[in-house]
């Protein structure tokens, strides 16, 4: 049975991932860690410890005491926050990552961390963005993500650490809200559709970005971690995506459930510039071929499930 330590466990992905891992591998086998304690299923339903990921010694000690054989490193600042606080982003995103890789090297743990579509930049081919292509991002988040991809490759090649990872698109979930991302509009819109019947988008009409529903993202992590290593040519930073849409298309999808839904625009120049530097849609062929990546939810299936789940939570 696996013994998995998760950092950033109270974040958007972490909180749902911990629940899924506890279901798959048993609650006692998943150690959730985060920089803060918020009373929730993550902190109450299994082992939990406070961890600032820039504290490498504590990270090593927690993993060792727990006898973890796997590290899933999720703690990071997202793109818009990283742009507002670039130095903090460098220190947290890169410092946390190198500590997690070091602990994995020293304790022989398998390792996962997500990269992002943010690892691409304006000179990357925008349509059907290949797995292996030009990566010259113009955001601090992107710089962190490309550096992180290279660092994970390095730890595999140099030290034999079993590093694995995907480039996540925007993730949409109905549990924990994202914070400080560029793709967050595609989550907020569902909450506002139910509360106000209207949404004011900070992303302009016609701006395409890749997205994925959280259950598909979590399954991708489990599938990649369990994949046969001999089949993995890339290991880290696999392109994965389930859909690509622009704001008018998600609004149209919501109108199939809430016909009176209204969409307005007040574009935020900072987040728009980040979105404009990212691909319209990426090619996930390598992930499909090397470890059988697949997904269940397209835009309309996700919209139906999001609205129904959020509505049920309110009542
Ligand atoms: C963000 O918008 O920063 C993230 C991402 C695509 O990595 N959701």
From TrEMBL:
Pfam families: Epimerase (PF01370). CDD domains: TDH_SDR_e (cd05272). This is L-threonine 3-dehydrogenase. Belongs to the NAD(P)-dependent epimerase/dehydratase family. It comes from Psychrobacillus faecigallinarum. The lineage of its organism: Bacteria, Bacillati, Bacillota, Bacilli, Bacillales. Residues 4-227 form the NAD-dependent epimerase/dehydratase domain.
